[in-house]
Amino acid sequence: MKILLIGEYSRLHNSLKEGLEKNGHNVTLVGSGDGFKNYPVDIKLDSYYFNLKLLKPIAKLFDKLFKISLNEVEIYFRAKKIINHLKNYDIVQLINENAFKTLPSLEIILIKKLQKNNKKLFLLSCGVDKKSVEYAINKKFRYSILSPYLENPDLKKSYRHILKYVSKSYVKLHEYLKENVNGIISSDIDYNIPYLNEKKHLRLIPNPINVDKIKYEEIKTINKIKILHGVNSKNYLKKGNIFFDKALKIIKEKYQDKIEIINTIDLNYIEYLKYVENSHIVLDQVYAYDQGYNALEAMALGKVVFTGAEREWLELYNLKENSVAINALPNVNYLASKIEWLINNPNELKYISKNARKFIEKHHHYITVAEEYENIWSKN
């Protein structure tokens, strides 16, 4: 098949592309590369002029005064130039409702063009969207990335880029996509739950991980346990990194001679991966039921990851608690106690490390996952 993937979040579409190409398909990936993470794309689609040093302040001021992003407008005109060349694809898949990263009304224009020039259109529920934000606002999750905002509405400005999905223009975009796509696929449990009763929702397909590129190294001897806390500054509140920082402060006071704490901020994908490779424990996020992409790749490397590993996830994959990953909760003392347990029981690190890699190979193998996509696309 000839397949077009629009947008990228945390290497999902890159890994899917690699699996699809292994299975003999012709795949084109269009996107920005997911900001500073700078993932590879076949056709780069991002704002350029309004990211220049001279024009960036003007764009920020315009956004502040008129609530219109000049970066998003620029992306539309760049997309408009290439959209007529994106034709005759059997499958088009959008990474998210806002896959082009332009204004919702302009997004609809681009999507209509894709529909006209190609055969089937699918939507991923990956990253926040109208359904997941609405579900969280209505407090249907026990906790979510919106928990800090729901507890303190003064944080509204920090959540602007999430709350926009329930604004009038984005709801209109959501409704258009819901009516016009062939189907909606969720990438993990956090996005699957809000869509469970949605007519167009097809199913959850786990994130694909290219295990051929990620080499597993068994933990043999441990002198000092290396704990990595990598932060994306824009998501500090939403990922619950403050709980990890406070837990690490407790651990450092008690076990300074037994551990090495590594803190990183806003690293691109290649740089971040080097630090992951050199650690034993990776602190990912606390406001999730399932693992995001960074957590999955760390697990593939055999790291013990503190991330979403809630009971819904345990039940779905028939797993025992603390056997594959550590469920991270927004509770400082709980997190400190779990880290302490691993420090005092290094054999548990080795046990979880092996299980994590096996889990990724069984449920997230990029070629197997690509086949799941192929099957669901062909049937819908």
Features:
380 residues; alpha/beta; Rossmann fold; 2 domains; seven-stranded parallel sheet; five-stranded parallel sheet; 12 strands; globular
- Supply the number of helical segments: 17
Q: What value does the Rg take, in angstroms?
A: 21 Å
Distance between the termini: 15 Å
> Mean pLDDT, nearest integer?
95
Describe the strand arrangement of the main beta sheet, using strand numbers. 3-2-1-4-5-6-7
CATH architecture classification name of the largest domain: 3-Layer(aba) Sandwich
Taken from the alpha-carbon principal axes, the silhouette is: globular
SSE pattern, N- to C-terminal:
EHEEHHEHEHHHHEHEEHHEHEHEHEHHH
Structural class, by secondary structure, is alpha/beta
- Unreliable sequence segments: none
Largest sheet: 7 strands, parallel
CATH topology of the largest domain: Rossmann fold
What percentage of the residues does DSSP assign to strands (E)? 5-15%
Going by CATH, the homologous superfamily of the largest domain would be Glycogen Phosphorylase B
Number of strands: 12
DSSP helix fraction? 40-55%
CATH class of the largest domain: Alpha Beta
> What is the total domain count?
2
